[in-house]
Amino acid sequence: MLSKIRRIAPALLILLGLSACQIFGLSIGDKPKPGTLRPGVAADIGAREHPRVVATYGGVYEDAGTERAIAKVVGKLVSVSDDPETQYRITILNSPAVNAFALPGGYLYVTRGLLALANDTSELAAVLAHEMAHVTANHAMKRKRRADEAELVGQVMTSVGRDQASIDAAIKETQLDFARFSQSQELQADDIGVRTLAAAGYDPYAAARFLQTMGAFARYQSLGGNGGGAPDFLASHPNTPARVKRAILSARQIGAPGIGVRDRDAYLDDIDGILYGDDPLEGYIRGRSFLHKALGIAFEVPDGFIPENSPDAVLASNGSGTAMRFDGADLTGFQKLEGYMRSGWINGLIDNSVRPTTINGLPAMIGSAVTGGWSFRIGVIRIGQTGYRFIFASRTPNNNFTRDFERTLSSFRQLTPTEQARLQPLRVKILEAREGDTAKRLAVNMSGVEVKRRLALFNILNQSKSSTRYEAGDRVKIVVD
Predict the structure, then answer these.
(1) CA-based nearest residue to 234, from 301, 288, 295, 174
(2) Alpha-carbon distance 210 to 214, whole Å?
(3) Which of 26, 56, 200, 459 is exposed most, by the fewest CB atoms within 10 A?
């Protein structure tokens, strides 16, 4: 959060040296196969887009354990893939999001958030096999061409059309076609990925298992938020239940459950200590609180809101139509906060709503605005030349809307030196259970998570149930600071 007023870590490229394959770009001497693009086109596109991807996802995550986990499986997968001659460049992204994707030219990306969620090497291998399938099936290039076509249709229809309803219908149809195209690619990559996974000796059921975990994690994250999103037919990926069912069917064609290597202990060793959640440079989400060690600030959103951190802002919603944004602005050139509030950055500002106040000893200014069918409450708190902005928005404002804004604004404070020193990032820790330990008992050891949500997150991270009982020496993942 607050990327413009924090120091940005340099985006460095990870080059993993593997014995069984090279993870570098395509070489000039590669010869195209019949029906493929001329040498270098895909690699050029990937190279051009790579810096943007790295910047968008918080830079590169450098960690020996996670690099080792990937290095152990990539060579095996490439050797049995549909095109063993393909060369890959794999980047671990410094993002808590659970994501993996491919770009033209063999550029593969996996986030540290995904690595923390996986439970064994076979699940990581399932993700990588799926993304490699996109490359070998040339999906990345096809998707880019279709995306360009969709954008062109929108531009043309907007430029020459007169009937707005017809324009919207044409654009929507193009978007639907692109969505269907993407879904077929995902399913094809799932099928190829499961076959590749099994051919490399890994558990072919890992793909379905991890899809289920990702679905559970998505539901966990949506609690307290609006829980919405695009319908399944408009999603860029098929819905999770459909993919799980198909992945299980693909695995059954290979063999019964229990075949293949899972390699759980080695994987847990590799991710022990991996950063979990927000990067320290972006600040920390702790339950309903946001804390930034470097900036020395903190605030808390009301019950029912779940904050989400991003490079530019902290966002939250309560599922009842209220949305919140918190970010920072440079106040250089504004001696008075009122001058900044009236400088034109707020559309629909109600003139007589602007008034000064004090928040925990800090000068502040609040105001209201109405525009585009939305009502806004705005608060700006000044520390030096930085203004910390709270913006609450609702289409149906009521007393709760005003109360939530005022509670959040009044919770803003500066951290004490002791609080700053004690604030540490969350990490995944591998814990050995004692005889008779239960999921509920072990979840108590979690930190940085609301007490009422600890057991749910523990069960997702460990693919367990609340009633699960462990034997002595069983290993589990917990999150600690």
Answers:
(1) 174
(2) 6
(3) 56
